[in-house]
Design goal:
Blueprint (H helix, E strand, L loop, with lengths): L1 H5 L11 H12 L3 H23 L2 H18 L9 H20 L27 H19 L3 H12 L4 H7 L4 H17 L1
Length: 198
């Protein structure tokens, strides 16, 4: 988490205009490095957040993010314009995280930082003006959830991160996970139950 707090990532300027994004991708495929750099700028925070949530430590998350963009650069020509770019990007991110976790033997013993795009902790509990005791309780609850998340199998962790933290629809998660919506719903249900039991 130290790295996440020590560097200030530029905010993802959402690319609202799909035509603009399509143009950047087309130029990137043609070898325009400035266009590819713009694609990276607009998506790097999503990738960094996703890799932190999946791998649970800064060093591996940075390595994974770097590998994600290397693969995006290498395979950008395979991206189909009728696809959702960010779903494609999440697919690459999940695959890279799985590869790194498998190579490095990362499993449930790693603590998972759960920080959303604004730098706030995910699973934030609604509060008014909490006192010190309430703040401590909330911090302990978030940390407990993070440890519970770290115990989940890769597919369940990826499904719940994509659905509950990234806010994707179940159908989008299923496409990213190369699964079907029913399986994803089951994975999310199992993950939520395991988190609750933990």
């Amino acid at each position: 988490m130290a790295l996440a707090e020590s560097i200030q990532l530029p905010l993802n300027a959402p690319i609202q205009d799909q035509t603009f994004l399509a143009g950047l991708i087309e130029r990137g495929v043609a070898g325009d490095t400035a266009a590819f750099e713009q694609i990276m700028i607009h998506s790097q925070q999503r990738v960094m957040a996703m890799t932190w949530r999946m791998l649970g430590n800064d060093a591996d998350a940075c390595d994974a993010s770097q590998e994600v963009f290397l693969r995006v650069y290498k395979y950008l020509g395979r991206f189909r314009q009728d696809q959702d770019f960010f779903a494609w990007l999440y697919t690459i991110s999940v695959n890279v995280c799985r590869d790194i976790a498998r190579k490095r033997g990362l499993h449930s013993d790693h603590f998972m930082p759960l920080v959303d795009e604004e730098g706030e902790r995910a699973f934030e509990l609604p509060t008014g003006q909490p006192d010190a005791e309430e703040t401590l309780i909330q911090t302990q609850q978030r940390d407990l959830i993070a440890r519970a998340m770290a115990t989940l199998p890769d597919k369940e962790r990826a499904s719940i991160v994509l659905r509950d933290i990234e806010g994707l629809l179940t159908e989008e998660v299923a496409r990213i996970m190369r699964s079907n919506p029913t399986t994803v719903r089951l994975q999310i249900s199992y993950a939520r139950k395991k988190i609750t039991d933990y």
